[in-house]
Amino acid sequence: MTYYAQCYQYMTDLQKQLGSFPSSFSSNNNQPATTSVLNMSVPTVPASTSLTPVSSAVPSGFTELKGSTGTRVARVLYDYDAADSSELSLLADEVLTVYSVPGMDSDWLMGERGNQKGKVPFSYLELKP
């Protein structure tokens, strides 16, 4: 099952569970509920339907960087605080060297700044020509 199909299934299950709550839970500001959760229409997707991501747009410069073994210079667009020791903290407008690593999540690149090295989020970068 694809990720999106799993998400859809979880949402459907949650909506069913919410529909089984007593009507007092769906009231607002201690007002009696006028619309039951059970009356909501829930879209259905046949199991055979293939779900695809909403946006499949690939940022400019990403494809050639992912396909190459070389490095590129990138300017940082926004500050970023590293979540763990494998990531590199970034400051807006700084310049660093980036490259792709086979098997790494497509939303991340490996970045180098002096002797510091770590994963950086691709969406925070502007690749220079």
Question: Please, could you describe this protein's structure?
Answer:
There is one protein chain. The chain is of the alpha+beta class and 129 residues long. The protein has two helices and five strands. A hairpin with a 2-residue loop joins strand 3 and strand 4. The longest helix is centred in the N-terminal third of the chain and has 17 residues.
Give keywords.
elongated; single chain; 5-stranded antiparallel beta sheet; 129 residues; alpha+beta
Topology at a glance:
Elements: H1 3-19, H2 62-67, E1 72-76, E2 95-99, E3 108-113, E4 116-121, E5 125-127
Antiparallel strand pairs: 1-2, 1-5, 2-3, 3-4
Form type? elongated
Q: Tally the helices.
A: 2
- N/C terminus separation: 40 Å
Quaternary state reads single chain
Sheet with most strands: strand arrangement: 4-3-2-1-5
β-strand number: 5
Q: Nearest-angstrom radius of gyration? A: 23 Å
Largest sheet: 5 strands, antiparallel
Helix content percent band: 10-25%
Q: Provide the residue-averaged pLDDT.
A: 74
Poorly predicted regions: 33-37, 53-58
Secondary-structure element string? HHEEEEE
Structural class assignment: alpha+beta
How much strand? 15-25%
Offer a quick outline of the entry:
The protein has 129 residues and is α+β, with helices and mostly antiparallel strands. The protein is 18% helix and 19% strand. It has two helices and five strands, in the order H-H-E-E-E-E-E.
